[in-house]
Structure formats: structure tokens, C-alpha cells
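User: Hey, my collaborator sent me this sequence without any context and asked if I could get a structure. I don't really work with proteins. Can you help?
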Amino acid sequence: MSNPELCWLSIAEASELIASGELSPVELIDAHLQRIDQTDGALNSFITVMAEQASAEARAAEDAVRSGRRLGPLHGIPVGLKDLYYTRGVRTGIGSKILADFVPDYDAGVTESFRDAGAVLMGKLQMHEFALGASSENPHDGDAHNPWGTSRITGGSSGGSGSSVASGQCMAALGSDTGGSIRIPSSFCGIVGLKPTFGRVSRHGVYPLAFSLDTVGPMTRTALDAGLVLNAIAGHDPRDPSSADRPAEDFTAGIQGGVEGLRVGLPQEYFYDIIDPQVTQAVQTAAGVLEELGAHVEEVSIPALDHALSISSTILFVEAAEVHLEHLRERPDDIGDDVRQRFEVGALTPAIDYMKAQRARRAFNAQLADAMRTYDVLLAPTNTFCAPPIGERESVVAGRDYPTRTLLARLTRPFNLTGQPAVSVPCGFTESGMPIGMQVATRTWDEAMALRVAHAYQQAAGWHTRRPPLR
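Assistant: No problem. I've predicted the 3D structure and written it out in C-alpha cell form, which is a compact way to encode the shape of the chain:
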């Protein structure tokens, strides 16, 4: 296998080759460092490339595997971290000017988990400032560029994570998801992005945005790979007050189970009010594929969905303003305009409105939970449109003009409110060659089901085998 081709292996494939001795971790990491060197000038996926450290970790992984001390499927696998995950001794700027020189003296819980699994850290990835935005257009670190069309956004806030995985720079990356920040760039970049159940993965050492919404999860090219990463990072961490004490679980154990007999609900409210017809068609076609595989697919009415955006925006902006109140007071001019405006909205929101939103959230969650008693999964588009051009402030969707940024997280917010798991999986391409994604949402704590459905669909549809034109 040629050196560049190594960058397009799945984690599962590379892991088997490493275990059998057919592939050296050093060779694998060298190929990915070369890929970063060749492509990051066009993409700006990385804020910090940890080349020297990655090479040393690759050599250590090779020695361990050869001596019979292989740690598992991530040993020797190249991974990236969004630049809000603490990495001891490595700059962690959270996409900001204010914290640009911050160097943590400890690792995040998930950083520790990656090290314990033998994964090789390639570097820190670009993001929307303070994770409060869905485009990854960043006035401090530069914009992230989509590998399917470098004049277009990656989505955000985990934009560098999306572009690095989609372009073959990393085999996996971690994003964070408060209003869709894993699923949006995964959809726009044509990869798999899993938002686990709230509390499934430790947030210790992950710079916060909104305490009641923040979630940590993997971004990969396949559902199977997402399960392998989740196996490594999931688990109780007493250092994180929101971390759930749940039994250990193998999220890949039943991934080959197929969809025969599963009940799939297609919510009709909200998701299709503002949408590109190409996205609608792609999701409908994907639902048909699941039907052909034996699933029972039917439309479902969940009226509460119409309130998702207003409820989540109030909660998110208020909690984000609380986190950044000192920054807003003392250094407002060092915050990008779009992010500062959201902080100001949150800071000026009356406490009574926040409490009303939290009460509404309980009613909203009850209605979604009621729907999940009938269905194994809910299927919906991830985005209303494909990735728009960088700098576009108004977008035309189905013949009407809309403010671009209000649409970016519109369809992902419901599952942040409920805290239930949702995975975005590629389900087609637009006429212009840009990826389309759909969400598979399941009951709380049932990530295995979401990955099982996503895997069955990927095996049947094959969209994940396409590569972006970037060379």
C-alpha cells in the first residue's frame, strides 16, 4: 500500500494491520504528518501540529506492539483534539485572542483516555472562537476551509476536527457539541459525528460553553470507528460533576446487527420548514434504504420541536455569558463581533426568561421521550443546506433569503436539549458536489443503537468511501 493511501484506511482497518505486524505505527503517523504538511495550507485545520511529539509516540507504539504490549484498537492511531481540550504543556487557546497563550498544566480526561489507549496526538484543531458559533470563521486563527470546496465553511464550532478527518489528516478527532458543533461540521464535511448522551463522556479539562448542554464526542469517517473511539473515552469521571456513573459498555458489540424490524420515526414538524429540496430528497432516499434493509419507517408528529430553537438559544446564550462574564467586561474588544454579540444577548437576558426556558425544556424533553417509547430511532436532516461560502451572511434556501448563521444550528439543537445521543452520517451530495448529512437519534444511553443504524446505512449506501477533491 502506497504511503498516501494509508491516510484513507479506517481505524478498524489500520488497527488490524498494526496488530498483525503488516503496518508500522511509525509509517502510519509519517503518512499523516505528510498529509498535514501537504494540505493544511489550504485547509487551516490545525492551530498547533505536534509533529515531534507524534513521531515519538509512534515510535513508542511500534516498540510496544512488537513486544506484545498492544493496548487496543487505537494504539498507534493518529487523532486530533479540538483546541478546547486541555493538553499538558501544549498551548490551548479555545480559538480566542484572550486565551491564545494559555498552556494547561494537566490533560483533559479524554486526553488522558487517548493516551491510555495508545492513540497518537497529532495536534490541536481549529474552532469557532470559544465554541460559540457554527461556521469556524475565526478572526484570530483564520477560517477553517472545507476539503470538498475550500471556499466554503467547514461548519462549527468543531471545524478543524471536521476538515482534518474528512481530508485524511487524522483518522479521528474529538469535537464538542453544545448546539450541534460535532454534527454540523460532520455533515458539511461528509463524515460521521456522534454527540453521545449528556454525561456519557467526561468534560474534565474541556473549556466550557454552556454547562447544561456541553457534550464531548468523536468525529470519524465510519460509524464503526466512532464506536471504537467512544469505547476509549466513555466512562465515569468524578472530576466532572455532570459525569454519569454507568456500567462499561462495548459500543461496537452489536454494530453488525442490522436494522431488520427496527422502528424509525421521521419527525415532520420543524425539520422541513426551511430546507434545501436536495437535502429533503437525500434524507427521504436514505429512509428508503433503511426500509429496504427491513426497518419500519413512518412519519411522526412531535409538536414541541417547533420550540427547540427559542428554548435552546435562551439557555445557551445565558450560560455562555456566565462563563465569559469577566472577558465581556474587561476585554470586549478582543472578542470577535459575532461571539461578543451572543455573549451580550445572554448577559442581558432576564433571569425569569432563563427559568421559563428551563421549564419549557422539561416539557419539551417529556414530549421527545414519549416519542422514543414508540420508535427505536428518529431520522432527520442534520443541516438545512450544504456548506455555504465563507463570509456569506445571507443564504437562499428554497427560493427565500435567510441570515446564514441562524440556519447553521437550527436542526441540531433539539437533541442538545434532550441530552439524547445523535449521530450525523453522510447521506448524499448536492449537485455542486457538497456533502449532505442526516441525524440518527436514539433513546438516552443507547449510542449503540445509533451506531448500529448508521453502520447499516453506511454499508448499504457507501457515501463514506468518497474522497474530497483536495490533493
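In plain terms: The longest strand covers residues 422-429. You can pass these C-alpha cells on to your collaborator as they are.
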